[in-house]
Structure formats: C-alpha cells, structure tokens
Design the sequence.
C-alpha cells in the first residue's frame, strides 16, 4: 500500500525539510504531492529560490508553462544559478516546435556564461542548434561538452548524429 504525504498535516518544520520532501517526492515521480508541499512552503517563505527551482522540476513533468514560470521566479531570486538556467532551457527545448528554440538557446548561453564547464548546457545547446539546422555550431557545442566530460555517451551520440546529418546535407548541396 502506497502512503501519501499530506504536507499540511506534516509535523516536520518547513525550510530544509520542505525542500527535502519536495525533492524526494519529485524523485519518486509523485509530482502533485511535491507541488503541494512546495506551494505550502512558498506560502510561508515565497523568496526561496531553491523551492521555486524544485517546483519547476515537478512542473516540468506536468505543465511546462508552470515550469517556466517557476524557473523564472527562481532566477529572479538567484540570477546566477547556471543549473536553473539549464533547466529553463530544457523546458523551452521541449516546447521548441512551438517556437521556443530561441528561448532555449538564450537560456543555455546564459548557463554557459555563468558556468563554462557545465557539460549539460553545452550538449543541450548543441541539440537546439541541431534543430535549427546550424550543424557546424551544434558540432562545436557537442565537442565542448565532450571535452568537459569525455566519457558521457549521450554527448558522443548527439555529436555523431550531428556529423551524419551535416554530411548528408553537404552531399545534397554538392549535388545541386
């Protein structure tokens, strides 16, 4: 029998406990409960960037517009958080077919400006550039991600796909 957590009836104090509860519930894919716990904490302490960040993570599985709003609130409180910029970029990337690729790219660029060694931001920047048809720039981003974290299989796979797509485009252009 799965137990549910009623954050309103919880006897644990807020603050770090609310953050931990929200994180654990997200990790357990119990997103609605996580959001309830985090919203209860935000009702008491609305200016806690990490709570908004975790709320964004939960909403990224349920409601992408709410995820962006939560990440934006977190960034308003902590604008130098490269991880949140990357997460914000991920949501915009997921909405890319609705015209959000530019926002995704801007978010990844901000994350990279704040933390140039963040391989995930470089890799995901490459994914956006690839979707935009900017294959050489995508390959550059993948290469940077590989240089930062040489053993990450996903990055190498993304780069290989980019090389193959770029090679196909080059061959098509030669035939014209």
Sequence:
């Amino acid at each position: 029998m799965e137990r549910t957590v009623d954050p309103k009836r919880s006897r644990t104090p807020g603050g770090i406990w609310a953050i931990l509860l929200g994180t654990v519930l997200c990790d357990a894919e119990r997103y609605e409960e996580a959001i309830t716990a985090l919203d209860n904490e935000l009702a008491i302490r609305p200016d806690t960037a990490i709570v908004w960040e975790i709320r964004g993570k939960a909403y990224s599985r349920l409601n992408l517009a709410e995820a962006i709003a939560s990440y934006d609130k977190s960034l308003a409180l902590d604008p130098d958080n490269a991880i949140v910029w990357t997460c914000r970029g991920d949501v915009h990337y997921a909405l890319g077919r609705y015209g959000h690729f530019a926002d995704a790219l801007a978010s990844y660029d901000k994350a990279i400006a704040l933390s140039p060694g963040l391989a995930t931001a470089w890799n995901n920047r490459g994914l956006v550039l690839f979707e935009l048809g900017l294959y050489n720039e995508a390959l550059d981003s993948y290469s940077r991600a590989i240089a930062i974290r040489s053993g990450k299989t996903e990055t190498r796979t993304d780069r290989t796909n980019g090389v193959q797509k770029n090679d196909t485009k080059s061959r098509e252009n030669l035939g014209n």
Q: What stands out?
A: Residues 7-12, 170-176 have pLDDT under 50 and may be disordered. The chain has two domains: 1-79, 80-176. The first helix runs from residue 16 to 27.
